[in-house]
Specification:
With 369 residues, this protein is an alpha/beta fold. It is built from eleven helices and 14 strands. The protein has two domains: 72 residues, Phospho-2-dehydro-3-deoxyheptonate aldolase, domain 1 (Alpha-Beta Plaits); 276 residues, Aldolase class I (TIM Barrel, Alpha-Beta Barrel), CATH 3.20.20. Helix 3 runs parallel beside helix 4, helix 6 runs parallel beside helix 7 and helix 10 runs parallel beside helix 11. The structure holds phosphoenolpyruvate (PEP) and manganese (II) ion.
Amino acid sequence: MLVILNPNTDETTEDFKITWEYLFGLPEIRLQKHKVQGRGQKLTEIYLIGNTAKVNQEDIELLPSVERVIRISHDFRILGRHSKETSSIDFEYNGVRFNQNNFHIFAGLCAVDNPENVERMMQALQEYGHKCTRMGAYKPRTNPYSFQGHGKGCLPYVFELAGKFGIKVVAMEVTHEQHIEEIDNCLEKLGRPTGVMLQIGTRNTQNFELLKVVGRQHTYPVLLKRGFGISLNESLNAAEYLASEGNNQVIFCLRGMKTSFNTPHRNMVDFSHIPIVKRLTRMPVCVDPSHSVGTREASPDGILDVLHSMSQGIIAGANMVLVDFHPFPTEALVDGPQALTLDELPKFIEDAQISREAYKQRVALWTEK
Ligand code: PEP
Ligand code: MN
């Protein structure tokens, strides 16, 4: 059961205390409080977890701070969209806002190789006014002999350069609890020149112990990739693991599915699932066309397949794109064959903007009375 309090409820008031104490006293019920920052107003949501069948909804609706009460289904309790009016997850992290209505580009290096390339990438992003990037320090690889990422050794220069070039959010994959500590210690030591969005890769979507650890920390938002070989429902449940541990600042990323039919692409692009994720849940949705497509092949119209797929995602309402770039793709240590070059960055940004505008026009077309 979800109890939504009146907007901007002040937790020091008598009304709030009466409401909280009543809910706290309910037998066989555990409470979980979440703050949702909407435009201009703060919403407090209290989840009643446990035997809610015995709870009287009307009694709760009469409590002084309560705006409304929604009975929710068992699935995706916190991240699910349980009624049409439920607002989307909406949060600001390090000055950047994320929700189901806005749009961000996270272009960057799949794997950090050296400070020079990190600098080239970040400088180019700054030139075009971009404040977000992706940088891989911990790389989960199929082959144990492949480059595994520079790990904590590269964090100081990645974060310092991010600060230097005004990058506010760096999406960075973690595969182990220890990586969160390393990131946190390094940022703290440097005086937090930038922010990090913890990425959980497709291979770890059902690493439940990792999900619990990442969900328990509230410092960093999370980008969760869809599992490459599990159902959408299973991947959405993985996201719910994060929220059930207390972190609802979760962005869900579609990155293609592994099937035998995807050839010659790396994965079967699944961006038609964007509206489904938005309908079933309140999470902003990201698309990763680089890992979906996996090549720099172009069609006869002169447009790279990666860009065609990116556009398909944005025009269907994606809120974020994660794309691999590299100053010299043939020298990249991971995923060079799919990386875009820095020369392509301005047109890439323009292409994304054209697609975003088209999405907005489509929404206006279908919602105008
Ligand atoms: C990545 O984004 O670098 C990555 C490894 O992606 P995925 O987990 O989707 O394969
Ligand atoms: Mn990669």
